[in-house]
Protein 1
Amino acid sequence: MTRKKISFPVPSFFYSFDTNAPFVQCTMCNGELQQFSKYFIEKVFKQNRVLNKSEIVYEYAICESCVSSMTSEISNESKVAITQLYEDYSENFLRKLDYLHRTEKYTIDSWIERCSLTGKEVRLCNEYAVNAIIEDGRIVYEHTPIVISDDFVLKIQEVLSKETKDTFNNYRDKITDGSPSVEDLIFSPTPGIY
Ligand SMILES: [Zn+2]
């Protein structure tokens, strides 16, 4: 039983860093996002230990149709392994979701303090990713927004097949224009994939 709350407006946290406004185009196909009933956002942060704050490393918005083509490129072996990994951590994940919905904490801060799977606080992560789903210009609080810590991304990496890793790396390079400053970062795919 997953509850769902759709909220307007989209929190500025999920705005494009460059424009400080909601995303307009799909990062992959450049299609107008508003022609899709649903799209996905991922933002990847790095912790600046000196300033003690999170800094954006890269971000993208992706339309439904690009998400399905990405999904189709994941090997079956990797899909099974990812599903199993999420199941292994589902107790923590579901308990958190239950709490957030039961107490109606429909403000973004409550959802992004900790890794949704491991419970690790984001301030303790060297890197972490935040994913959200936007539906008809509103933010969806359901099983997302979701936070994936560096620890959990490493676990995902461990179970992926070589082909799927290569696919993800290609997508990451496309999103970041192959910028060398992010080549060491691990790409964690959007929740739409699972
Ligand atoms: Zn697209």
Note: Residues 190-194 have pLDDT under 50 and may be disordered.
Protein 2
Amino acid sequence: MNTEISWEDAYKNATEPLPWDIGTPAPELQSAFQELDMAGRPALEIGCGTGTNAIWMAEQGCKVVATDLSATAIETAKEKAKTAGVVVEFAAADILSEGAVESESVDFVFDRGVFHVMAEGKRGLFALRVASALKNGGYWLCLAGSKDELRENPDNGPPQLSLAEIIDAVEKSFEIHRVERSNFTLPNGAMHVAWVVLMRKR
Ligand SMILES: C[S@@+](CC[C@H](N)C(=O)[O-])C[C@H]1O[C@@H](n2cnc3c(N)ncnc32)[C@H](O)[C@@H]1O
């Protein structure tokens, strides 16, 4: 997908859920929660889209803040949280802006397909913003498209990063706790290779 896309336009003009909006919580998020015993602890989702994963974290007893650039996505997410009967502090905000999220306020940050849409020159800043939101020793779980997937047309699927590109942007602020290979499975059945990177704030 082209990273120059206007996210707000994409959500506003959509007549059906966007390709990444699978409507079920990410299994990688569920595993990390179990591994780290995160239920009940303050959490942040960056680029939450229509809120499925933020709502799932709230259902685990977490105080959740969730942000997205798109006001339309945030409105949909608020409706979904209401229907689910959970409280999530949703906000339309650019994570790259200073002060978008309160400093050292959460134990866990989740991003699914957001770090990977950042232009190369913005990835370090993104990692700094994540680190700033986390308490000391907090964790960031990042799901990102992988360059290990061979594609004829690179735009035909999520952006693709090498592990070296990810590590280069995050290593100053994070130690790598675990890296796995997984897939983004889309509602149309398409599968794209993904990195699952669990990091701990230094
Ligand atoms: C590929 S979508 C993934 C959405 C959601 N995480 C999911 O899995 O359904 C990328 C999301 O990141 C959001 N986004 C892009 N740049 C952002 C930024 N600088 N700050 C906050 N959100 C951003 C977009 O609006 C979009 O909802």
Note: The CA atoms of residues 45 and 142 lie 10 Å apart.
